[in-house]
Amino acid sequence: MFRYSAAAIAGLVGKLHVGGKRGSRSLAVLAVALGLLVPLVLLVGSVSADPASDLSEAESRVAGAEADVSAAQQQLDRASADYDSAAKRAEQPAEAARSAQAEVREIRTELATEQRDARAEIAGLEEARSEEEEERDEAVSSGIGIALAALVAAAIALSWGWFRASPIVAPLVRMQLAQAVAICVGGGFLLLVIGAALAGDGVAGAIGTALVLLAFILPTALLLGRHSLEVERDEAKPQFGRKRMPEWVPRTTAGIFLLLFLTGLSISLFADEPEAASPSAELSREAEALERGPGAVRLSTAKAAAARTRERAANPLAQRASARADLRGAKRGLRGAEADLAAAEADEQRSSRRLKSALKAEERKAQEEAEREQRRIEEEEDELGEEESAGCESGYSPCVPSYPPDVDCADVAGSVTVTGSDPHGLDADGDGIGCE
Q1: Residues in Cβ contact with 358 at an 8 Å cutoff, skipping those fewer than 6 apart
Q2: What is Dmax (Cα atoms) for the chain?
Q3: Would you give the end-to-end CA distance of the chain in angstroms?
Q4: From the centroid of its chain, how far is CA 141?
Q5: pTM
Q6: Domain boundaries in the chain?
Q7: 195-209, 267-281, 413-427: lowest mean pLDDT where?
Q8: CATH architecture of the domain with range 3-100+315-389
Q9: What share of the chain is helix, strand, coil (3-state, %, to 5)?
Q10: Is 296 exposed, middle or buried (0-12, 13-18, 19+ CB in 10 A)?
């Protein structure tokens, strides 16, 4: 590292190694130069040691990172092999478990479809039966209502003489015809509204039907009774040329209404029963296919088989999952080691560049220092040459005559600074000052 500085110093020593007073003066100058140059070289060396140390550490880290990458790659290879082996062992059990589960889903879907269709069919049957029962109830109610209305009309026809003289008809005679018609029509309309509101099945339906029919029968009977009473009192002209109605007319009318009564009664008594078929036992089983019956047993058996298959596949699948986790961890480890290697290589490159830069800077500084020392020494040599040519011994200041001959302090005016060798022996105590 210090080869340039050492070469420069060796060159200087070679150039300055001369005999006599000139050589001693040169050695003194060299000592001073060394005193200045060596600390500088040591300083440069200490500064330059850091990049080299950094480079060495970076190379060590690169080597360690490469070893880590190699170890991580080996671990990844082992993990990959373990995963392949575990996946191969788990392939057949996993396929069996999937197949068993798929069979369970297929059976459940089939039974659910069968159950849904059966329940829809049962619902249709029940709805049809309900509609037929409602129709039958309405027919019974209508028959009873017709029978009641016909019975009232037959009673009026049979007791026509009493009816037209009853307190119900008498007030109508005292009214104007239009007023009587309005009252009868209004009463009939009221009965019609009430009967329509009660229409339906059951007792209320029967009463409603009877009221609807009586809404037409009673107003007609009341107006006919009023007219008959007016004719009898000579307050109105007969419509058919006779003052009294023949007896066969009310009887015939009563017979017709009795026939209507019997017809309504027979309708209510002999109404057809609902013809909608009840759900069969097989359809009922299909409607509960998922809960009970052969379908539920088949589904339960398939579930048990699937559970056993999953239990057999649990260990191989767990081993495969563990191997997969190890493989992922090995991949992450390899990526981390590769990242560390890349970082270490980048540090190595930076340290190498810094070291090269430091070495070049050191070479430039050493060369510049050597050139400066060379110039200084050459200047001193020039000065020494000038002093020697003037008869002065080198290494003394101020000028002392050259040796030989020997000069004593008596021959020198004042003290003398000794900077090199002391051929005259002027510095007896060696403190650098002679002739004190």
Answers
A1: 47, 48, 50, 51, 52
A2: 207
A3: 46
A4: 65
A5: 0.44
A6: 3-100+315-389, 137-276, 391-436
A7: 267-281
A8: Orthogonal Bundle (1.10)
A9: 80, 0, 20
A10: middle
